[in-house]
Amino acid sequence: MNKILGILLLLVFVCVGTTLLTEKFVGSTNVEQLLRYSAEYGIIGIGVGLVIITGGIDLSIGSVIGLVGCLLPMLLVDHGWSVPASLAAVMLLSLVIGLTHGLLITRMRLQPFIVTLCGLLVYRGLARWITSDQTKGFGSDFNDSLRLLAIGKPCSVAFLAMLAGVGVTVWSGGQLWRLRQNSQPGDRGPSADPGTQDNQRSTFTLPVPWIGVLVGLLLVVIGSSRFWFGYRIDIGGTLITLGPIAIPGWSTTVAERGLAMPKQLMSLSGWGVLPGVLILPGVLSLRGIKPMLLPLAALGVAAGLVWAATGLVDQPEDWFWWGKNWARTWRIVSVFSSLGLLMASLAWFGRRAVRVAGEAAIAPLVLTSVCAVLWLLGQTPLGQTLVPAPLVVLMLVAATAAVFLNQTIYGRYLLALGNNEEAARFSGINTDRMVILAYVLCSLAAGLGGILFALDTNSIQPSSHGNFYELYAIAAAVLGGCSLRGGEGTVLGVVIGAAVMRVLYNSINLIGIPSQLEFAIIGLVILLGVIADEVVKRIASQHRQSRSKIEAGQPRNPKRQRGTNR
Questions:
Q1: How much is the pLDDT for 565?
Q2: At what angle do helices 431-457 and 83-106 cross, to 10 degrees?
Q3: Integer Cα distance of 409 and 413 in angstroms
Q4: Helix (H, G, I), strand (E, B), or coil: what is residue 340?
């Protein structure tokens, strides 16, 4: 969970910093492109994440995407195959590729790096050979049908927010119900004496599940506001035909007054910060406000620096020291450094508040954070943005992968295999079968991603289509918390990691950094993220060891203790 929170904060950091530097970042067209590309890279990132969890690696993803991207238009346009047959053929090819990788690794005992590196070369060569190195495309024949899987916009962000609100409300309501069932009648809690300090503190404790219910209902109201003034769903045409099943296309028309309602309500949600700000001092005063003075002062200074940095962005280039050539550098450094200090101060303040007031501080902090985030989103066109179809595909793939990894016995087997393959084998797990399954799922994800990338670009160059995509996918998985040693990783973390990669790429182009430095900056960010994760992991391990020694009655530093005794 800490890794997911860390990569999410990195995503927020890059998004907010880029927005302060240029308003183009929150343009409706740019937001839609970010959502679409993040979804497509997230799909292939999930596939490679499953392989990394087992302790393996797959370097052939980009070439598989290129091969699938070349074959699909060839089958549909050049050979006249039907849509179901063409999709089935390229997905079957992806399955065979993954099965071949798995068998070579498990039966021949070859290294995954070598197997997939050879696959990278073989599939790229096959793609160039079968196409005679000629560009392939779909033309305009499938713009109103199959290509809608990549370029279509089936729903709005507001609709997804409404669905998310329903889910949060139901989950939080279930938590409240379980808490009520577990509570015993007449139990007054750990401190029944009304005169004790613990009892006074408990009267100010806000149950976090109630905050979840409030947040969920707020999302439902914001999302449903798009349809308050009426809507109409028009069904016409055929999106895709799968044998006897024809999936129709549709479009939704919303009243003009309802288009801006989600954005307005998100902006009004900023007033929800006030209850949290008013409640938090009262909660902290029960333990003493003095420990919070230093974090609060740091927060004020950091906020002032951010305000000053935004002022620098509006200054003409001649105003900056060392001339116009350094203007861009001064702006970027000032904005990102001050924003980093602000986010660090916020984290320090929140951690100190929880340490001082315990669980009583969690509810107002959560309420304030959610309302602040909604207010920030209300300053962008996100509330009026339509959802690209690949994002819906990503949600389905991510939900399926999360259930598979966390709720099925085979997902547990994959995690156990990555932690200790020998122990997993001795415990009765068919490790070879699990390795094969991981590579098959990875290749199927690459095949699905190859279909979406091909339908999106509509023009496929065999020599370059899919180049370096495997590196983006692996980087997304590593940033998302997948350990290259295996046995660790989450689907949500991989999705956020893919979003970070695309946002970084987009930010580099928008804020005027030379494109030649693109890979250098992305690589440096990944390296710093991995180093920070490793440092935090070591510090947490040392704290756990120190705490366990204190609980066992041992001194923290035995050498110093022995020297003192002498």
A1: 46
A2: 140
A3: 6
A4: helix
CA dihedral 502, 504, 507, 508 (to 10 degrees): -120
pLDDT tens sequence across 472-508: 899 889 888 888 888 888 999 999 999 998 998 888 8
Write the pLDDT tens digit of every residue in 61-91: 999 999 999 999 999 988 888 888 999 999 9
Record the pTM.
0.85
Distance (Å, whole) CA 354 – CA 363 = 10
| Cβ atoms of 258 and 228 closer than 8 Å | yes
Q: In angstroms, what CA-CA distances link 410 with 7, 231, 400, 407, 506?
A: 27, 44, 13, 9, 37
Per-residue DSSP letter, 388? P
Q: What is the mean pLDDT of the segment spanning 281-286?
A: 74
CA–CA distance, 324 with 313 (Å, rounded to integer): 13
CB 331 within 8 A of CB 18: no
- Encode pLDDT of 332-370 as tens digits: 888 889 998 998 888 888 888 888 877 777 878 888 888
Whole-angstrom CA distances from 378 to 34, 158, 221, 257, 498 are 18, 12, 14, 16, 24
The residue ranking higher by pLDDT, 237 or 267, is 267
Confidence of residue 320 (pLDDT cuts 50, 70, 90): low
Q: How many CB atoms lie within 10 A of CB 219?
A: 25
Q: Which two tokens stand for residue 549?
A: 């020694």
Triad 85, 89, 95: Cα angle to 5°: 145
- Nearest-angstrom CA–CA distance, 456 and 446: 15
**Two tokens, residue 156:** 């709005």
pLDDT at 188: 44
Contact by Cβ (8 Å): 206, 363: yes
Helices (H), 207-326: 208-224, 256-259, 261-268, 273-285, 293-313
User: Where is 5: in which H helix or E strand?
Assistant: helix 2-21
- Record: fold of 32-151+388-511: ABC transporter involved in vitamin B12 uptake, BtuC (1.10.3470)
Q: What is the DSSP string of 173-235?
A: HHHHHHHHHHSPTT---S---TTSHHHHHHHTPPPHHHHHHHHHHHHHHHHHGGGTT-EEEEE
What's the pLDDT score for residue 562?
Answer: 47
**Residue spans per domain, the chain:** 32-151+388-511, 155-181+204-227+260-384, 513-556
